[in-house]
Write a structure and sequence with these properties.
Length: about 400
């Protein structure tokens, strides 16, 4: 006689906390990401579901692909959005191009460089990470010395580091590296849309970003693109990619990046694709040039206003500062933890503390996408000024 499992009583009861409807407070997100979503993007995310192979949804995927090509300034066919956050795109980039024994050079010493090192090591690559002070960028002479001795197959560069607030001199670096036989991976999660970036013109082989920062879409999708030469290498790997989910050739087929008929690979986050489509449409409508200029102008206003308060910016040289994430030193006699709490509680504005090497040293203020405006610069500076008044640490002398 079959067991009747429907008669078994559930020991774990429905949680009372789920009875009230969800209520999310309205806050101005002026940290390193995620950023606020415009109404157009939120509306898209709430639209009705479609099947992941529905012809109407495939057309939306094609729209997203074209939008990413514009944002990246590339004509690469192998361009799509990874179903995952920016970290998933990082793993996709590294795991697909690296094979055991490859020489992997990491030019970034911030938290994202550290994670690239961890991923490369797990793949079985021979990794080398340059030791660069967190408030400085890659020096070309130092890079030349390392490349001459290490002779890497693959080089990782974090264009804009949200943990330190640095913006790497990417054109100079890629110009040098393109004369060598190596693949260039660039992380643009915190820089895409905030600073000039040209995948094809600058000779970038693999470029990836995230949806939740300057693009103002919900987190969960990550634009990525592979050059034709990289695609050729992927097709001639000695061993299969260790991750089925992040196999770029399989995902690329689902996104219609080749000549073969599309096949099911995974169920895409349908509504996030809608949202990213609208976010890319907003960027295309404004144009990259105007978006870059807006971020540059607002960042310069923020830097001046912070310095007018007597604060010291963490990155000394303006040319090396990331427009989308400003790092400012926490004053010696200030409670660095309480100030962001005060700003959040009194003004409903979010800023963040440091991360990795900058933890406990800086605050991070973001200017991303629709949040990047002179009005918001004034709001966050005024809030910071008010909360600084009541959070000075009293001397014990």
């Amino acid at each position: 006689m079959a067991n009747n499992y429907y008669d078994i009583e559930c020991d774990v009861k429905p949680p009372p906390s789920l009875k009230p409807p969800l209520s999310v407070p309205n806050k101005l997100l002026m940290g390193p990401g995620p950023s606020n979503c415009p109404p157009k993007v939120l509306n898209a995310a709430s639209m009705q579901m479609l099947g992941h192979l529905d012809e109407d949804f495939l057309q939306i995927m094609d729209d997203v692909k074209a939008g990413i090509q514009y944002a990246f300034q590339t004509t690469n066919r192998m361009t799509f959005a990874v179903s995952g956050t920016g970290h998933c795109a990082m793993e996709t980039a590294i795991c697909n191009i690296l094979e055991p024994g490859d020489k992997f050079l990491i030019t970034s010493s911030g938290i994202w460089g550290n994670r690239a090192l961890e991923i490369g090591s797990r793949v079985g690559a021979n990794c080398y990470q340059m030791d660069i002070p967190s408030d400085e960028v890659v020096q070309l002479n130092d890079l030349k010395k390392v490349v001459t001795t290490f002779k890497p197959n693959v080089v990782f560069i974090c264009h804009g580091d949200s943990s330190t607030g640095t913006l790497q001199p990417l054109p100079d670096i890629t110009r040098f590296l393109k004369g060598l036989d190596c693949i260039i991976i660039v992380d643009s999660v915190a820089s895409l849309g905030a600073a000039p970036l040209f995948m094809d013109k600058w000779g970038i082989d693999i470029l990836y970003s995230g949806s939740q920062k300057i693009l103002n879409a919900p987190p969960g999708l990550s634009p990525i693109s592979f050059s034709p030469s990289v695609v050729k290498k992927l097709k001639s790997r000695k061993v299969p990619v260790s991750s089925f989910y992040m196999d770029a050739l399989l995902i690329g087929n689902y996104w219609g990046c080749g000549d073969e008929p599309r096949k099911y690979h995974h169920t895409a986050p349908i509504n996030l694709v809608y949202a990213l489509r609208e976010a890319l449409a907003i960027l295309a409508d404004e144009t990259l040039e105007k978006c870059w200029e807006r971020h540059k102008s607002c960042a310069e206003k923020l830097w001046k206003n912070l310095e007018d308060l007597g604060l010291v910016l963490y990155i000394p040289k303006k040319v090396h500062r990331l427009p989308s994430v400003t790092t400012v030193n926490i004053p010696a006699k200030c409670n660095g933890i309480e100030v962001p709490k005060c700003i959040r509680k009194r003004f409903a504005i979010d800023i963040a503390g440091g991360l990795g090497q900058t933890a406990g040293k800086v605050w991070r203020i973001g200017l991303m996408g629709c949040n990047c405006s002179e009005k918001n610069v004034s709001k966050v500076v005024d809030a910071l000024q008010e909360c600084l008044k009541g959070n000075l640490v009293k001397s014990s002398l």
